[in-house]
């Protein structure tokens, strides 16, 4: 049994604001240490539950946050940037299940540090379904026939996961008070919870179906700023809806939609505000 683990940072225990997740800020080193410990909780539980291979993908920012020297020695780590499939790099049909840990709510929604990829995105739709990082990544997993069996993060991420993926197991390590204030478990308690929930998720994995993406999905991204939409619309195949900040892309499949999203958001970040 192979288990895939995507580890983001905003949903990690005790992390409440930018100072914990930005490598230039004062609390980042503390944050990445807790992040690594939380990844280990998933990994250890997966091996104890019968996995013979666990692949971990560092999925935050420049994707080089996890301290490999402190990870479980039998883990394989995908680290660094640029990754063609970003937060789901290395995920394919050989895995029995995927675990998303350290995840957060999508843009424009309540939740600690809620966003979708960049802070210039207000919303992303696949056909008529609004998705954040969690949902888009789950669709890619579903394309490969892999169910997302467990999601760990704040309470709002758990609610988002449960609405998208029937029978998914969730581990709530902190409750949202505001976008930069949480009521959190301690790391030791959170890691215990995550181990228990990971074991339960693997036991119940047959009851979770992959989130199957639509054929030929129409992706739409609503940006916060008109200039961001202009930049994103420079990518061939896009259409900028007149007098809006929405840019659409008709994809052949969800993998093309995902890579298009990466390009469009990277372009959008070139916008200046002067």
UniProtKB/TrEMBL annotation:
One of its GO terms (molecular function) is aminopeptidase activity. The active site is at 115 (nucleophile). Zn(2+) 1 binds at residues 8, 10. CDD domains: DAP_dppA_1. Zn(2+) 2 binds at residues 8, 60, 104, 133. The keyword Protein biosynthesis does not apply. Keywords: Metal-binding, Zinc. This is D-aminopeptidase.
